[in-house]
Input
Amino acid sequence: MNNAVTTLPRGGYLVKTSAGQIQFGSPPETIKDTMVLPDKVPEIFVLPGELFHVEKGIAVAELEFPIYYNHFLCQKKTLILCTIEQKKQIVAVLQESVFGPKEINLKSEFIDGENSHGFPDIRKEMNFFRGNRVLEDLVEFAIFKDNKYEINGTVIYRKEGEGFVVEEDKKEIASIPWEMEYKVKYDVGARLVEPFEAPEFGITCLGPSHGFDPNDNTSGFIVWLNHRGIMVDPPVNSTEWLRESNVNPKLISHVILTHCHADHDAGTFQKILEESMITIHTTETVMDSFMRKYTALTKLDKKQLYELFNFNPVTIDKSIYIENAEFIFHYSLHAIPTIGFRVHYQNLSFIYTSDHLNHPETIDEINSKGVFTKGRYEFLRNFPWHYDIIYHEAGIPPLHTPVSFLDSLPDDIKKKITVYHIAKNSFPENTKLKLARFGIENTLYPEITPPKYGEAIKILDMMNNIDLFSDFPVFKAREFLSIVEEEKYKKGEQIIKKGTKGDKFYMIVLGNVTVKGIDSDFVKTYGKYEYFGEASLVTEQPRSADVFAETDVTALTIEKNAFLNFIQGTNLEYYLRHLAKTRESNSWDVLTRSEVFGGMTSHQKTQLETVLQQMSIFSETNLIKEGEVSETAYILISGDIEMRENGNAIKKFKHGDFIGDIFSLRKSSPAPFSAVALSDAELYLIKLSDLSAFIQKNPGIYMRLLRAHE
Output
């Protein structure tokens, strides 16, 4: 911008002033940008106009790590400049991440309540790590008055909806945008030539290090089970990394959230907003902290947030099954409530500690101060080193396990340990320990006994994840198994030729295809769990597009007559005919050019196309009436439609815009504005019931629709 302003690589801005460095906005991991600068981490932060970046699904006011850095390493407070409302938001976030929940009761999370062996006094443990600190020891808040704040001769003006201006000696030295852009920055590693094929069992490191390491991704990983993935504390940008690495994100529908420090929970919310509904597995205590953080950041209420994902509350020491593997959870020893877990699958056992202080001498010292219950002490002192695969964190005590302790263990144990959460330069040399290696190319593939009926499970997984069939009754599975065939195509091979007669339905097991139709300016790319070739089977029309194998492709196919018989008696035939008719109106182009819907995946666009109803209206038609309850929403194809409030024109809708207020629609409350046609127009109508069903499957769209008319 100018000599006074530095644009940070991950987003946000640094302004040099006579009062010191001032950072505007703080997206996740920007501390990794500032740590390497000559002036290091700033002590003054100005919160941006919006604290949450909807498109990226992350907070752009992530202050936890700068606060830690300033307090523990520099013995200084962090000054946060904000509004009164923003102070309430940030205090709620910092309470959970720095000190943990104010109120806590674990009784319902253990099989026998507080009588369970190993039941911890988690409040005593948290207080031990907290010491006598209160939030005021770490941070100081400064509030804008009349949208102005002065500090040591530097004046900052907050211009609502426009941005921030910094002045010195009555001269402007910086102008900062209102909203902070978040720039994705991550190490991709090696991109696979062909799409990743999920193994029977495997582990992929998403990041091996900690939040203060500027040279490596923050820790997190994927456990692959039964050809599906379970993300564990996904770091920010994990979704982008998966796509860049040629890993289909739809392979992953489960997340384990171990605790609510920013380096562990930020990527979880990104995954929630990515595409399809996911299931989060954690305890009620950890989930409550997560909800308090993100209701504060997003300004959504608790009920709205819970609609974005499925929550599976886990019980400590009670087995649950995820992707056919047995998981057993436990509470680790950390500053805030944190869970680790054990996994048993086929002939293998695996344990992950999560953030955990596993150091016998320190545990004994803490026990001598009366912090642990008897059973908790015994649990902490008897770590199951006999497990086949051990993923153990390491870091700076007293919050983490010293890597020197892990390196002191017998060689036969060290050979089984992969160390996470540690920078390369802190890892010991000439050790039998293994440092986690980032990247899809470094996925661990332990030998495993294949499960019974493995091929049948893979085929039924396709049926379950193809949206057309996901609600089919169980008895249809037998028929599905009997009618599918597997076919393989080489990269570049033509699978379907336009104008030919339709004879098969295709479902992609592995690889990508491109669909090139004459009516669209856009080339469609389909991947795993997507389908094609259905329209001509139900309409008896010739194939409408050419389909080529973009990579090597494995597909399941169903012959035409078997397919039509399989869907007989269901609503699928109607929906597929409707989909074919909708696509004749160039719906793909409309959605792709839309600001709200353009970022959707091909899978999501196809789902939405099945419920769109094309309609024409005349000029002066009142689509939505302010103050009245509506049961429909619209997407503009062509024509002029105006938004009005209290009779005053607010804006004109553009091609592809969503016309409707999603909040009032779902609440069946009066619409906050009117929508009036200024000319004849073409639109897609969406019934509320269809829109609600679509949002339930694709929660990230809900967040975009909430912000559509801000």
User: Anything to note?
Assistant: The chain has a mean pLDDT of 92. The chain has four domains: 5-177, 201-442, 454-569, 605-706. The radius of gyration is 27 Å. The longest helix spans residues 84-99.
